[in-house]
Amino acid sequence: MAKQMNQRKAAVIGCGFVGAASAFTLMQSRLFSEIVLLDANFDKADGEAKDIAHGIPFAGQMKIYAGEYQDLADAAIVIVTAGANQKPEETRLDLVQRNVAVYQSIIPRIAALDFKGILLIVSNPVDILTYVAVKLSGFGWQRVIGSGTVLDTARLKYALSEHLGVDSRSVHSFIIGEHGDSEIAAFSSTNVSGIPLSRFCEMRGHFHHQQAMDEIAQQVKNSAYEIIAKKQATYYGIAMSVRRICECIVRDEKSILPVSAMMHGHYGIEGIALSMPAVVGAKGIETHVPITLNEEETRLLLHSAGTLQEIVAQLAL
Q: I want to staple 152 with a disulfide (CB 3.0 to 4.6 A). Which of 174, 175, 208, 266 is the partner?
């Protein structure tokens, strides 16, 4: 008999840099009263759980521990960060075969538990692995969410806020498409508190719009490579992204986030997962939000989808 879901329980599979940072961030968030950590190396999960648990007196009472697959059956959210790390000079798509094999060992075990919650995919390449998770689990697509371009979008908002000298929370913009080299900064629909981007730039004394936006888009796209070259991995930004997605689910916020999910015809894209703004709540993805794109952005989005389609066509699932 299936366990009743515990709405305040989360599980993290994979206790490397990203998994451990995500668990630490979630412990501080007070969203959950119980977090279970799983890793191929039980001692690694146990060590991380014990280390994080020592911060509980500063954050608020909860339970965090290392466990086995049966311990996540009643979780509200299972966060999958397991997989090989991206190496310097390696693209996210280069990771495909190694991490698909990892997912073939993980996702069927989750599905076998009659798990009823949300599957949050974080491992790279996240769009491909979100697609793989949908196929291997048999879950409805709304319940399988990739972290997608939530972090890229945060990087974009931060870069624009620095350029404009304004609070990043007042910047409304999205990175869409692949979480990777073919991602698109949707500048045509970007605004700062309702003021079109180009107009706000001029208000702040910036007039070379195209050049500045091209530079910012490249800066955002290359930021992960820069960080990986300097410290071998990125994990704080993605951990905060995981926390934000979990907030939307646990609190049923119905916030709009650029998460990765299966596409069903928007912009003519089907049968692949990529990032587009979507309403995220307690049941996962409620609906995609078709933002306005100009012709060039639409062309680039279709190119991004095509890049992912080519990879998916080569997978043996």
A: 175
Domains and their CATH numbers in the chain: 6-146 (3.40.50.720), 150-313 (3.90.110.10)
Question: Would you please indicate which residues are annotated as catalytic (active-site) residues?
Answer: 179
Strands 34-38 and 6-13: parallel
A 10 A CB-CB count for 268 gives 10
DSSP tally for the chain: helices H, then strands E: 10, 16
DSSP 3-state of 280: strand
pLDDT in tens, 211-268: 888 899 999 999 988 998 999 889 999 999 999 999 999 999 999 999 999 999 888 9
Can you tell me the distance from the alpha carbon of 269 to that of 104, in angstroms, rounded to the nearest whole number?
25
Produce one character per residue of 158-179: b if its CB has 16 or more CB atoms within 10 Å, e if not. bbbbebbebeeebbbbbbbbbb
Record the pTM: 0.94
C-alpha to C-alpha distance for 241 and 235, rounded to whole angstroms: 10
